[in-house]
């Protein structure tokens, strides 16, 4: 089953994805899985959609979102939804926001 | 005695006399407002959510603003305007010309002054009824508890992760609401911490800064590198002032106040510029407010914030393939122009601001996203020298590394210190921005 979703970037992360603030994506689960999780999405974004090769600005240790990036699932902190394990639902809106420090 | 000296002597005499007088009965006993206060604050007292009782609470309260920059200036302007009784200001920095577009308390004549002094003198001209306290130093764990203790609300208007964690911990230890904001480029973020409800007196299940950000960021962009629009950071500063006023005044009309917004993301370029985010609650694993906290009032000043916030070096260490701006100048003078290329790797926005006349523009992202044209690759690989330049020498170092790794042996050199060094050491007419 394919899952359409919207991915948004802010706080400068859009620079890593060709300057696109919003991506409309259709995720296709791999053969072994029935569904896609945030972890699958992050790997897909790194492998397929990232235009800048500096992966360390988005992920650490292969495919874990680096500290300093907030992941928001439908406007809620992903901690409330199960973080990487969250199973993506059709129409979800996932925002990756780099935390800002300027003042 | 000159007229001037005579007046100054009279001022000193009168100020001494004034300070020996007890406060007006009107103020101290009844906590009623003076006639000028009714006039000055009348418009905001008409607002039901504030009212006269809220105004009296504002006058009794104290707010500490840490950082008197792009966030702190507009916040202070409105907190002072609203009649907060006591305002503390922490900042170690002096005013510079590049502050003026967004740090709204400073004028050209304040350049070189301590920000705390310039801010207080400007605020006093607008509202002298308020007590102002200057802390002209950078907040460290040695003084933080002493400085912050006793304030009713704290505004984090600083600009580094280290100061943000420090303030997050100290306010949580002292049970003081913290309103944290930050801004960069066209975006800003606002976080109300240590309180979930405006009218509550304790944190309840509200997170502290460390609950929301348990691990420090591995990469940080600064305003001086990435840029900032004045009204964007100003908006965030005003929202901080507003949240502080709401937290203080809520006790007068608790039935009119609900939950704090938690976190607000402001993206001025989005078709949905304001978004409220549901943040996580207090974390039982938090080092400051969890079930087994390791950062407490007693251990606080032993905690090493510098080490904790160590930002990993994203860029490779300098190698031998470098050239200084002085060497570059002698290349320009002595070499024929067909013996080298000068390649500027800054983004288009910066390249448009200013560039060296003989430079070729290839932004860094063109290298990193592997979008070089065949022509550009051939150019980089031919026998001419490649001198790579950017603003400070960091992006150009990344480009040199990319070229060396991907195009093999080329004669490619990084210009250390970049165009900033060029302005300072070679050509003072070349703009610094
Ligand atoms: Zn906490």
The secondary structure category of chain A is mainly beta
Major sheet size, sense and barrel closure of chain A: 5 strands, mixed
Mean pLDDT across residues of chain B: 90
Please indicate the percent range of residues of chain B in DSSP E strands (runs of 2 or more).
5-15%
Percentage of residues in helical conformation of chain A:
10-25%
Name given to the CATH homologous superfamily of chain A: Beta-grasp domain
Which key features would you list for this structure?
heterodimer, A: 103 residues, mainly beta, five-stranded mixed sheet, globular, B: 433 residues, alpha/beta, five-stranded parallel sheet, 39% helix, 14% strand, binds zinc ion
Protein described:
The complex is a heterodimer of chains A (103) and B (433). With 103 residues, chain A is mainly beta. Chain A has a single domain (3-98), classed as Ubiquitin-like (UB roll) (Roll), CATH 3.10.20. Chain A contains one helix and seven strands; from the N terminus they run E-E-H-E-E-E-E-E. In chain A, strands 2-1-7-5-6 form a five-stranded mixed β-sheet, with no helix packed on it. Chain A is globular and about 45 Å long. The mean pLDDT of chain A is 91. Chain B has 433 residues and is α/β, with parallel strands linked by helices. Chain B contains 18 helices and 13 strands. In chain B, the strands form two sheets. An eight-stranded mixed β-sheet of chain B has the order 3-2-1-4-5-6-7-8, sandwiched between helices. In chain B, strand 2 (86-90), helix 6 and strand 3 form a beta-alpha-beta unit. The longest helix of chain B is centred in the middle third of the chain and has 20 residues, at 230-249. In chain B, 40% of the residues are buried. The chains are: A mainly beta (103), B alpha/beta (433). At the A-B interface, strand 6 of A face strand 5, strand 6 and strand 8 of B. The complex binds zinc ion. The site of zinc ion has 10 residues of chain B, from helix 9.
